[in-house]
Design goal:
By secondary structure, the chain is of the alpha/beta class. The protein contains two helices and five strands. InterPro entries: ClpP/crotonase-like_dom_sf, Tail-specific_protease.
Length: about 90
Amino acid sequence: MYVLTGPDTFSGAEELAYNLQQLGRAVIVGEATRGGAHPREGWTVHPHLEVTIPVARSVNPVSGTNWEGTGVRPDVPCPAPEALNKALSLIQP
């Protein structure tokens, strides 16, 4: 399986890509993702100020870590607009 990623890949899509990569079930093609692994909640502390705090932490059982702040690093790096053609070239000899 090939999973295409780029800077617009975020949150749940990153989790899917990361988990498949760590389990050896997919090859990630494209650019690094944005790096949002920790769910956050916001609280309004003043009419013009909101505080956002992580309320959980994703931990992959294989790697023991996650993609927070670093993003999912592709196995086959290339510009995101070229990821589909790159994946197709890997499939077709």
